């Protein structure tokens, strides 16, 4: 397995534009997490899904952020409209059921720059 | 509510010196605790977890329920240990601390 796959690796956009980040979890994993990493705030959990259902979205900063998981192999995080303060590295992670389900596997992240 | 605190954002030691990265947590149940590491230009990866009581790359971490701590220790730091370290607590969702950047100087 190639691991958790995120795209794009880098995104540079102008303020006000819509941004969509994509994630493909490891096949068979039933948990999917979206995190945001910044120097100031470290790693923040934005939202997580279990079996494609959003369980906790309390970390989503505001209504400009939305996340979907239409099926077990794909998730998106959308920011509309984007703002400079959204600039960060966004990580997707997944974990699988069973005794090892607590271990998270992270993607390489998407470096987002909003100008 | 669960919470993880890493009091040091930056930690610098010399090669060969002992290193301890502090982590404290608050959680009402029985916690599952982990340390993740992110080396430069690499993805975040699991370093170790308390449940397996393992030593990885010379690092160990002991869960102290009385002090609600899970400090990461290594007796002799190496330059390749320089990285960002995150302590995390898992109960369904995973809560991460703010991270500690460790720099090991030659």
Q: What does this molecule look like?
A:
The complex is a heterodimer of chains A (115) and B (106). Chain A has 115 residues and is mainly beta. In chain A, 0% of the residues lie in helices and 57% in strands. Chain A has no helices and 11 strands. Chain A is globular, with a radius of gyration of 13 Å. The mean pLDDT of chain B is 89. Chain B starts with a strand and ends with a strand. With 106 residues, chain B is an all-beta fold. Chain B contains no helices and 11 strands. The radius of gyration of chain B is 13 Å and the shape is globular. The interface between A and B is medium-sized, with 20 and 20 residues.
Task: Outline the fold blueprint.
The complex is a heterodimer of chains A (115) and B (106).
Chain A: E1 5-7, E2 10-13, E3 19-24, E4 29-38, E5 42-50, E6 53-56, E7 65-71, E8 74-79, E9 88-96, E10 105-106, E11 110-114
Chain B: E1 3-5, E2 10-14, E3 19-21, E4 24-26, E5 32-38, E6 45-49, E7 60-61, E8 72-74, E9 83-91, E10 93-96, E11 100-105
Parallel strand pairs in B: 2-11
Antiparallel strand pairs in B: 1-4, 3-8, 5-6, 5-9, 7-8, 9-10, 9-11
Key features?
heterodimer; A: 115 residues; mainly beta; 7-stranded mixed sheet; 4-stranded antiparallel sheet; globular; B: mainly beta; 6-stranded mixed sheet; 11 strands
* Largest sheet properties of chain A: 7 strands, mixed
Helix and strand pattern of chain B: EEEEEEEEEEE
* Rg estimate of chain A, integer Å: 13 Å
The ordered H/E elements of chain A are EEEEEEEEEEE
Tally of DSSP helical segments of chain A: 0
Count up the helices of chain B: 0
Give the helix proportion of chain A (percent range): under 10%
State the oligomer.
Answer: heterodimer
- DSSP strand content of chain B: over 45%
Mean of all residue-level pLDDT scores of chain A: 89
Net shape of chain A = globular
| Low-confidence segments of chain B | none
Mean pLDDT of chain B: 89
Helical content class of chain B:
under 10%
């Amino acid at each position: 397995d190639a691991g958790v796959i995120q795209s794009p690796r880098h995104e540079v956009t102008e303020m006000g534009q819509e941004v969509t980040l994509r994630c493909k979890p490891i096949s068979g994993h039933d948990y999917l997490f979206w995190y945001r990493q910044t120097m100031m705030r470290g790693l923040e959990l934005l939202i997580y899904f279990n079996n494609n259902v959003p369980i906790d979205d309390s970390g989503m900063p505001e209504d400009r952020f939305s996340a979907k998981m239409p099926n077990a192999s794909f998730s998106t995080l959308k920011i509309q409209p984007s703002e400079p303060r959204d600039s960060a590295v966004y990580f997707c992670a997944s974990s699988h059921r069973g005794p090892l389900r607590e271990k998270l596997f992270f993607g390489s992240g998407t470096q987002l720059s909003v100008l | 509510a669960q919470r993880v605190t890493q009091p040091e954002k930056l930690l610098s030691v010399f090669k060969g010196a002992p290193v301890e990265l502090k982590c404290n947590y608050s959680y009402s149940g029985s916690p599952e605790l982990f340390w993740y590491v992110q080396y430069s230009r690499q993805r975040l990866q699991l370093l170790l977890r308390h449940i397996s009581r393992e030593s990885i790359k010379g690092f160990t971490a002991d869960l102290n329920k009385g002090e609600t701590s899970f400090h990461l220790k290594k007796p002799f730091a190496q330059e390749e240990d320089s990285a960002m370290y995150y302590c995390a607590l898992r109960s369904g969702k995973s809560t991460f601390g703010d991270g500690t950047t460790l720099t090991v100087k030659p």
